[in-house]
Amino acid sequence: MSQPAKRVVLVSRPVGEPKASDFRIEEYAPPTPGEGQVLLRTIWLSLDPYMRGRMSDGPSYATPVPIGGVMEGGTVSEVIASNNPGFDKGDIVLSRAGWQTHALLDGKALTKIDPKLGPVSTAVGVLGMPGMTAYTGLLDIGKPQAGETVVVAAASGAVGSAVGQIARIKGARAVGIAGGKDKCDYVKKELGFDDCLDHRDPNLAAKLKDACPKGIDVYFENVGGAVFEAVFPLLNPFARVPVCGLIAHYNDTEAKAPKWASSLMRAVLTKRLTIRGFIVSDFAARHADFLRDMSQWVREGKVRHREFVTEGLENAPAAFMGLLKGANFGKQLVRIGPDRA
Amino acid sequence: MSQPAKRVVLVSRPVGEPKASDFRIEEYAPPTPGEGQVLLRTIWLSLDPYMRGRMSDGPSYATPVPIGGVMEGGTVSEVIASNNPGFDKGDIVLSRAGWQTHALLDGKALTKIDPKLGPVSTAVGVLGMPGMTAYTGLLDIGKPQAGETVVVAAASGAVGSAVGQIARIKGARAVGIAGGKDKCDYVKKELGFDDCLDHRDPNLAAKLKDACPKGIDVYFENVGGAVFEAVFPLLNPFARVPVCGLIAHYNDTEAKAPKWASSLMRAVLTKRLTIRGFIVSDFAARHADFLRDMSQWVREGKVRHREFVTEGLENAPAAFMGLLKGANFGKQLVRIGPDRA
Questions:
Q1: Cα–Cα distance for residue pair B39/B87, rounded to 1 Å
Q2: Who among B61, B263, B270 is closest to A237 (CB)?
Q3: Same domain for A147 and A111?
Q4: Calpha distance B196→B167 (Å, rounded)
Q5: Is Oxidoreductase one of the keywords (chains A, B) (predicted)?
Q6: Whole-complex ipTM
Q7: How many domains does chain B have?
Q8: Cβ of A60 and B270 within 8 Å?
Q9: pLDDT tens, per residue, chain B with 341 residues
């Protein structure tokens, strides 16, 4: 190996926003695969908001990254050495190799990617976890009906962009919320949402009301904060609120009771709302359906997607900090190595 | 008719707790049935917490009682005159005749009750709306599995008592919360709950934790307030929270953000909770299932119930005000007239 292997480890649990000093880049000697093991070279690292949760040790659905441990993450990687009969040198695989240039894994957690299906990066994007989060949360919890109104925030992002486009495919009105005019234009013109509003607009609540003249039937919750505050009064009876993320709150340090909180349970009752948290692995049984439908929609141009690429593992911490602030425009990827070594 | 007819009308929309002056008792001449109409004499009036909502004109799933209008309510009544070929004098019917001694109705909203099936009062209790609220909310939203833990407040009441007993039938652990030692003893000894705690106990949270060593999988929410605050930290991943009432908040006059509110949505996400509001009519399609199962359980002694009877229409307002404070012990009924005139 011409270059030393590198990895990003967690140095300290962030209080509020993560900062550069919470991460450390280490060099290490790439390991040699033992019996049944596979050595991977990372091509693409996916950065996703859920990773903020893994940096904290509060109660969650997943155990946190230990201090001194490699940051977790999904990757697209190439097999560069294999002692596992199931994998050959040169295979491209989806794995959870984490924020590092190389990883030693047994074969259990690897899924081969067929590069003929399209750019391999889509395996961590529109055809991967973010796409499936959108698909299952919207269809299995949100259940949009033709003529209903679906609202999603972070609408130019990996999950939000798919949510709105799938809502349109199902005959619903799709209203996105995104940060800034460029993103809103993209969401409306390229992704075909019926409308898109800027969450920085001081009149967000009033504009959202105008954009949803028949109220909101599905609110796909992936940000929380001010967006939820604007959405909340517009929810229709029997509205469904799949909750897969609360980016606006990930860096909260103290419990600040939002204005709507006291009336939330009352609204649940009087409007007969369904609010349900989920993560994509809850719907593992739907993976084949997802791949079939989503790959077809991507081929037909009904679901478009956009990648936002940061170059080099060293820049992953900065890219992640930016992701939490909405600095990305499309699916945030880090290019760790070339497609072919 | 020997006595003048009487009715209770709403005089003013209560601010906070309803008071006697929000109601007025009026005498009126009982009407004569026209073509297709039926004149009813009320036997039993059911009092239920939802009626507090009907006294306010805030957004809800139902329109409020108009000022000067008769208070709404379910009744068991006798047909005393009929111009409708579907009903004979002497028939006992379930209706929404409201807080009055007599009512003129067309036949559409009447259901005949077979007095041979048991005391006719059960048609507004364990075999009526409260029983079906418990049955559908617990089974269709809560979905308790054998070995799981179900918690319900107002456990000696019409809904709560059925919730815990059905949970036990399904093999779940049932923990009730009720007001005072007598009610808790009844819930444990007569209804067979695994445990019951007094909501006035200052150590409720700690005791609830002890009573639910494996956490809480289903919280049937019918009161809100301090009970929800104690329940909230104990909810297990994938817990279900059917919400059919928030008695503790019905008299709230200002939005007071409860302590747990700011962390509610975060818990929805990290614990993948399902919170769903409902009213019993959402599950109308389940009525036949409910009647079949519940009447069998009542016959077999697996579901027991208790009635708390107040005598006379004049006392209905005081009984209702007491109901909102938990003064009743069992299903709150008002005896308006004898079983047979």
A1: 10
A2: B61
A3: no
A4: 14
A5: yes
A6: 0.77
A7: 2
A8: yes
A9: 456 899 999 999 998 899 999 999 999 988 889 999 999 999 999 999 889 989 998 766 678 999 999 999 999 999 999 999 999 999 999 999 999 999 999 888 899 998 877 789 999 999 999 999 999 999 999 999 999 999 999 999 889 999 999 999 999 999 999 999 999 999 999 999 999 999 999 999 999 999 999 999 999 998 777 788 889 899 999 999 999 876 655 555 544 545 555 578 888 888 999 999 998 889 999 999 999 999 999 989 999 999 999 999 999 999 999 999 888 888 999 999 998 87
- B282 with A272: CB under 8 angstroms? yes
Q: Which amino acid is at B218?
A: V
Give the C-alpha separation, B220 to B142, whole Å: 7
**Cα A161 to Cα A177: distance, rounded to the nearest angstrom:** 10
Paired sense of beta strands A274-277 and A235-243, if any? parallel
Q: Which domain holds residue B92?
A: 5-124+305-335
The string of DSSP codes covering B273-289 is -EEEE--GGGGGGGHHH
What residues of A are in contact with residue B266 (Cβ under 8 Å)?
246, 249
In A65-107, the DSSP E strands lie at 75-82, 92-95, 102-106
Residue with tokens 């055809």: A127
Rounded CA-CA distance B267/B260 in Å is 10
CB-CB under 8 Å, B261 with A61: no
Considering the domain architecture, whether residues A210 and A331 belong to the same structural domain is answered as: no
Six-digit token pair at A265?
């349970």
- The verdict on residue B341 lying in a domain is no
Domain for residue A340, yes or no?
A: no
Any domain includes B327: yes
**What is the token pair recorded at B308?**
């708390």
B101 and B151 inside one domain? no
CB of B157 within 8 A of CB of B187?
Answer: no
At residue A145's C-alpha, the angle toward residues A143 and A148, to 5°, is 110
Residue B288 CB neighbours (<10 A):
8
Alpha-carbon span B294 to B317, nearest angstrom: 30
- Residue A244's nearest CA partner among A138, A124, A98 is A138
Is residue B340 a part of any domain in this protein?
A: no
Q: State which residue of chain A sits closest to B59, comparing Cα positions.
A: A270
Contact B277 A268 (CB under 8 A): yes
**Distance between CA atoms of residues A53 and B185, nearest Å:** 44
Handedness of CA A81, A86, A92, A98 (dihedral sign): negative
CB of A138 closer than 8 Å to CB of A114:
no
C-beta of residue B194 within 8 angstroms of C-beta of residue B175:
yes
In angstroms, the CA A47 to CA A45 distance is 6
Q: What is the 3-state secondary structure (H, E, C) of A183-233?
A: HHHHHHHHCCCCEEEECCCCCHHHHHHHHCCCCEEEEEECCCHHHHHHHHH
Please report, for the domain that includes residue B218, its CATH number: 3.40.50.720
Question: Which chain A residue's Cα is nearest to B281?
Answer: A272
Cβ count within 10 A of residue B63 = 9
Interface of A with B (CB under 8 A): 53, 58-61, 221, 224, 228, 237, 243-246, 249, 255-259, 261-279, 282
- Are B77 and B71 spatial neighbours (Cβ–Cβ below 8 Å)? no
Tokens standing for B288? 């036949």
Asked if residue B87 and residue B26 are part of one domain, the reply reads yes
Which residue of A249, A265, A271 is in closest CB contact with B246? A265
Integer Cα distance of B45 and A21 in angstroms: 68
